[in-house]
């Protein structure tokens, strides 16, 4: 710092500096971590890096990644969406229900997504317009959604429509469709946030809503859209999960809430708004899923798995704070 | 009463901020029994000097002695030695009552007992004035700035300071309160103490001060007996004989098209303002702060709503939002840079391009090549000192940040540029560049409106100046009449003291924002729901059903107390659920029937130790590793659950039957656990409002900086909060023994969300500072009631969740709305 600031003006940043800032930021740790994890796996648990094992793990990682993408954008807006379990579950059920009633999967997809969109908009309006803390708002909507789950399902699981099950298990050139869909989500949202005007404004609103208002950005629109898109992500994840396990259960989403938040945290998106990376969250979803597989393959039970995940969160966050401890500004 | 004894001595004090020299070798002393005026313009260094004296700031060079003892950056010691400071922005905790703020503001030895607090506070306020309109029970949020200032002064006077520093004290006061203040000041000096009186109102200082010291741009201009100087001499000392700053040439005379015109434009804080600003010219708005000039500008920027007739280039327009203003070509450089100007964590590039991103798009996408090119150009053109465009803007000095924001605002290519305090917190070198840039923009045809509290700046930059007083334009200066002396004179002449103002407020909203409203509302809801359910189905009110509900409510209530305890200091604990499970599991190894007494004792001890350790780890992660409380307790949520599952992969270990019987004991139909929960709520509520710890916790959660000023140690208080929260979870787990019976690691999980819901319904704020244990108890009862009532009402099961969800939303929306309403600007 001391040397470089002395310069009155600056020229083009050196190639080295550019590489440094794009490759070594807080979102790049997760790439190294994931590669290291796979290398570690090939030594300690070679079974989990065999192609068959990986291709059975990927759909789960993909579904988690889609939920993590939705959670990431909400966290970028200084929020947290606790309605993930309800949204994911109701989407699976609605899809199955509408699919069977109308006999058309083609109709079920847009209808389910439209409902998810509506719920997300309600979440967003409650947060942004009524000024209710995001965590409380979404806890409440989650309760309502879980009620709806009970009403729709009548208390028993529903078989997933065959087309959905097929889609969830389908592969394109040997790559699971779920993974392709997850990558599509990640790439589209990443490009939108980094390379489009609405995306830039979205980041600005998350970083400092008051400054965004002063800069002429209609912040309400962005805050509401965030929750709407997050709901869409959760709904898609819910439908895929339903297809994958073959039935729409009443608890499908419950086990995804904490892992989704964990993936965002491990990916490096901070809780203070603005900055964030859906790519890092997606990679972190893969990391967390593979970590679970490895621990399982080593013969450890749920307890060790949870412990390892907790450690992963703490290490992931602490590692990014290390430079601060050494007094870097 | 004056003597030669010096109560405050400052020798050769310099203070440098990054990139700015705020004070340069100031020597300043205050004699016992005198009023020492400290005058200078905004930014001259008056507040900084007193910051150094009070220990809030560390001097770069020089020494400070208070009553003969050397002090360096130690606010506690400074206060102990008898220095009290009344700041422009009162250091009060907004969610605490007036009385509690007075209490925390005093040194420990002077604090009264908390039981008669309101009477004590009323007496103090009556010392100030017989017809004081402040109720000691009112929250600070409901006071207007003037009332807050009175509280701050009363607090400082009650400390009986040796040196009392008053920083712009009359800014917020009405005429009769200014007289009262002067009376008090004379009383303070009569007892041999001294007063430092900071003001930019020269007449006031002349009226009250014995000696006065003038500061200009961080340098002392000498100390004089107040009576030896007349007003003009003081003004010339403040302003400086010659202009120290260079300003660019003004607009060339000739015809300039009117760009923006307002007619009878009114809004919050200003009324009937009719002004025109022409292309190529700068219109300055001057006046004492809060006389409407800034509000007028913000209405033009679309941040506040104004009404009246507006034309832009001859066409009628309306400005409904900041977005609308932007679309019309009006751009705004905010005065509060940190709050509204910068996006601190984002890079210079992102901060620069956000206001004009359309310039960077190619085929609908932002081209990073174009964007980087534009950013580099802006950095070069505005001489921003930075290694490169990817540096986070918050790591730049104030002046460089301001240049980036200004460059970003100008990149919008506006027709009208609104500039608010363009050089606040900016070093002298950068100022000249900013002036040059603003003038160049005007020369290129932009119509510029400037608001600044620095009259030299207004005079140096503006072609025309409008003087604001009480929301109206009282004078216009044009051409040669635009000089600093004229502006200062007009401003001082026009602005007398302010009127008292009050925001009228519906009684309902005021009540709803109070501490007791959530309790009464939730209590009523419980009674109503109970009555309806009882009328529908008499079994609902049967002893058996009531006992069951009370048992369940007791557990939820106790864990909710923990959550509430932590939420007071803006924390949140997701790990309470698993902690309850872990306690249950630990108990299932020791508290067995037939276990030896030693084992039993060890078991009970472990139960509490385990809970406390979880709380300690949470605190360590939050304070030590600086994790967000959500993230930290999410990690411990998983880790604690892991430990429970490790100890008991499947539920097992039947607890001692006698113990369970004991826990199941009832007094009449009321379970002992419920009685314990009620007693705990009352005790904790007492601690919260009547003990120093409780008041301190609420103060800390309300505003950390103000709490620190009052001597509260945030790290220690948070340790108590985290450990306390987990211990409550442990106690709740004990009440759960009788319901679960065996060591079930998953037994507590649902209580995490339940506890948050209970405290939120009970009126707690997630941001800290507000809450109630009785509220948490009522919230817990209500949730338990909702969970069971559906069965009795023969509603289908989903109603349980619908009711819970809608009731949370309704209650929180009401609290949030009412608290928003009562906040005074």
TrEMBL record, chain A:
One GO MF term attached to the UniProt entry: transmembrane transporter activity
Domain of life: Bacteria
Keyword field: Cell membrane, Membrane, Transmembrane, Transmembrane helix
GO cellular component entries: plasma membrane
Membrane topology, record value: Multi-pass membrane protein
Keyword Cell membrane: yes
CDD domains for this protein: TM_PBP1_transp_AraH_like
Transmembrane segments: 27-45, 57-75, 82-100, 106-128, 135-153, 173-192, 224-246, 252-271, 306-323
Pfam families, A to Z: BPD_transp_2
InterPro entries (alphabetical): ABC_transp_permease
Cellular compartments annotated: Cell membrane
PANTHER family: ABC TRANSPORTER PERMEASE PROTEIN YPHD-RELATED-RELATED
Protein name: Ribose transport system permease protein
Organism: Celeribacter neptunius
From TrEMBL, chain B:
Topology of the protein relative to the lipid bilayer: Multi-pass membrane protein
Regions that span the bilayer: 519-539, 545-562, 601-622, 629-647, 667-689, 719-742, 748-767, 774-793, 799-816
Pfam name, any one: BPD_transp_2
CDD domains on file: ABC_Carb_Monos_I, ABC_Carb_Monos_II, TM_PBP1_transp_AraH_like
Domain ABC transporter: 8-242, 254-495
Main localization (coarse): membrane
Record-given protein name: Ribose transport system ATP-binding protein
Native source species: Celeribacter neptunius
């Amino acid at each position: 710092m001391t040397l470089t600031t002395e310069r009155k003006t600056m020229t083009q940043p050196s190639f080295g500096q550019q590489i440094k800032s794009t490759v070594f930021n807080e979102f790049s740790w997760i790439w190294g971590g994931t590669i290291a994890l796979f290398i570690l796996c090939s030594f300690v648990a070679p079974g989990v890096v065999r192609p068959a094992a990986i291709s059975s793990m990927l759909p789960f990682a993909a579904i988690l990644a889609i939920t993590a993408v939705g959670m990431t954008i909400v966290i970028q807006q200084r929020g947290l969406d606790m309605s993930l379990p309800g949204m994911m579950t109701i989407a699976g059920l609605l899809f199955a229900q509408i699919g069977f009633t109308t006999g058309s999967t083609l109709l079920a997809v847009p209808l389910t997504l439209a409902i998810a969109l509506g719920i997300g908009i309600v979440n967003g309006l409650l947060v942004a317009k009524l000024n209710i803390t995001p965590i409380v708002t979404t806890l409440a909507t989650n309760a309502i959604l879980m009620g709806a789950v009970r009403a729709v399902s009548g208390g028993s699981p529903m078989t997933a429509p065959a087309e959905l099950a097929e889609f969830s298990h389908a592969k394109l050139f040997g790559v699971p469709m779920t993974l392709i869909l997850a990558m599509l989500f990640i790439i589209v949202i990443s490009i939108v946030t980094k390379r489009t005007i609405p995306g830039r404004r979205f980041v600005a609103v998350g970083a400092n809503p008051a400054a965004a208002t002063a800069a002429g950005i209609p912040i309400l629109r962005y805050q509401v859209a965030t929750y709407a898109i997050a709901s869409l992500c959760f709904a898609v994840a819910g439908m895929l999960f339903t297809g994958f396990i073959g039935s729409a259960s009443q608890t499908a989403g419950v086990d995804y809430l904490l892992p989704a938040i964990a993936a965002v945290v491990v990916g490096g998106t901070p809780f203070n708004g603005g900055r964030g990376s859906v790519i890092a969250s997606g990679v972190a979803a893969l990391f967390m899923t593979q970590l679970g597989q490895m621990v399982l393959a080593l013969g450890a039970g749920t307890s060790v798995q949870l412990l390892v995940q907790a450690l992963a969160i703490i290490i992931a966050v602490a590692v990014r704070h290390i430079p601060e401890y050494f007094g870097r500004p | 009463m004056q003597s030669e004894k010096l109560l405050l001595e400052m020798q050769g004090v310099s203070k440098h901020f990054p990139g700015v020299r705020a004070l340069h070798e100031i020597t300043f002393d205050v004699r016992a029994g005198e009023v020492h005026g400290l005058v200078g313009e905004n930014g001259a260094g008056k507040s900084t000097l007193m910051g150094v004296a009070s220990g809030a700031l560390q001097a770069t060079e020089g020494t400070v002695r208070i009553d003969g003892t050397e002090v360096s950056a130690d606010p506690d010691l400074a206060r102990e030695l008898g220095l009290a400071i009344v700041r422009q922005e009162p250091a009060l905790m907004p969610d605490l009552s007036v009385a509690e703020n007075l209490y925390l503001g005093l040194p420990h030895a002077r604090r009264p007992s908390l039981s008669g607090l309101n009477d004590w506070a009323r007496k103090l306020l009556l010392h100030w004035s017989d017809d004081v309109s402040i109720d000691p029970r009112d929250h600070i949020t409901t006071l207007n700035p003037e009332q807050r200032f009175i509280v701050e002064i009363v607090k400082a006077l009650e400390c009986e300071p040796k040196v009392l520093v008053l920083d712009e004290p009359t800014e917020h006061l009405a005429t009769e309160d200014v007289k009262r203040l002067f009376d008090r000041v004379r009383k303070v000096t009569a007892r041999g103490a001294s007063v430092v009186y900071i003001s930019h109102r020269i007449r006031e200082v002349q009226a009250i001060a014995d000696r006065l010291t003038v500061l200009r741009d961080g340098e002392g201009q000498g100390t004089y007996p107040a009576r030896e100087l007349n007003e003009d001499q003081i003004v010339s000392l403040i302003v400086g004989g010659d202009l120290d700053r260079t300003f660019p040439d003004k607009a060339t005379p000739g015809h300039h098209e009117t760009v923006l015109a307002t007619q009878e434009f009114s809004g919050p804080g200003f009324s009937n303002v009719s002004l025109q600003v022409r292309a190529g010219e700068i219109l300055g708005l001057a006046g004492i702060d809060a006389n409407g000039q800034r509000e007028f500008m913000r209405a033009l920027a679309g941040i506040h709503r104004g009404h009246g007739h507006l034309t832009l280039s001859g066409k009628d327009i309306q400005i409904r939002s900041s977005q609308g203003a932007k679309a019309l070509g009006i751009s705004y450089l905010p005065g509060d840079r940190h709050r509204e100007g910068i996006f601190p964590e984002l890079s210079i590039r992102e901060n620069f391009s956000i206001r004009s991103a359309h310039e960077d798009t190619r085929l609908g996408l932002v081209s990073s090549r174009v964007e980087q090119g534009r950013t580099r150009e802006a950095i070069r053109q505005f001489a921003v000192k930075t290694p490169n465009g990817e540096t986070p803007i918050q790591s730049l000095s104030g002046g460089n940040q301001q240049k980036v924001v200004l460059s970003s605002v100008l990149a919008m290519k506006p027709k009208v540029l609104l500039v608010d305090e363009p050089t606040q917190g900016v070093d002298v070198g950068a100022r000249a560049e900013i002036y040059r840039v603003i003038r160049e923009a005007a020369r290129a045809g932009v119509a510029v409106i400037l608001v600044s509290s620095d009259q030299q700046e207004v005079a140096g930059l503006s072609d025309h100046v409008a003087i604001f007083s009480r929301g109206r334009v009282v004078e216009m200066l044009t051409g040669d009449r635009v000089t600093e002396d004229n502006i200062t004179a007009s401003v001082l002449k026009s602005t007398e003291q302010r009127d008292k103002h009050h925001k009228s407020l519906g009684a309902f909203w005021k009540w709803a924002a109070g501490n007791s409203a959530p309790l009464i509302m939730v209590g009523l809801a419980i009674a109503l729901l109970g009555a309806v359910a009882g009328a529908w189905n008499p079994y609902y009110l049967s002893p058996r059903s009531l006992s069951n509900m009370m048992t369940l409510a007791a557990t939820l209530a106790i864990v909710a107390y923990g959550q509430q305890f932590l939420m007071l200091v803006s924390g949140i604990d997701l790990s309470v659920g698993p902690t309850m499970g872990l306690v249950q599991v630990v108990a299932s190894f020791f508290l067995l029937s037939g276990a030896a007494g030693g084992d039993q004792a060890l078991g009970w001890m472990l139960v509490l130790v385990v809970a406390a350790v979880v709380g300690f780890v949470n605190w360590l992660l939050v304070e030590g590793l600086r994790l967000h409380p959500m993230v930290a307790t999410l990690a411990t949520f998983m880790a604690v659950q892991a430990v429970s599952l490790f100890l008991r992969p499947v539920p097992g270990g039947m607890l001692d039957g006698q113990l369970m019987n004991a826990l199941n004991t009832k007094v009449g139909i009321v379970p002992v656990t419920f009685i314990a929960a009620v007693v705990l709520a009352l005790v904790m509520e007492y601690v919260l409002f009547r003990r120093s710890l409780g008041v301190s916790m609420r103060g800390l959660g309300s505003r950390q900086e103000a709490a620190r000023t009052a001597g509260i140690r945030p790290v220690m208080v948070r340790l108590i909060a985290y450990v306390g929260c987990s211990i409550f979870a442990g106690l709740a787990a004990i009440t759960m023994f009788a319901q679960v019976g065996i060591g079930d690691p998953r037994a507590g999980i649902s209580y995490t969300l339940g506890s948050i819901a209970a405290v939120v319904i009970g009126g707690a704020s997630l941001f800290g500072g507000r809450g109630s244990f009785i509220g948490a108890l009522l919230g817990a009862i209500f949730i338990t009631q909702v969970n069971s009532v559906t069965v009795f009402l023969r509603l289908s099961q989903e109603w349980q969740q619908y009711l819970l969800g809608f009731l949370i939303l309704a209650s929180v929306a009401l609290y949030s709305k009412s608290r928003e309403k009562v906040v005074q600007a």
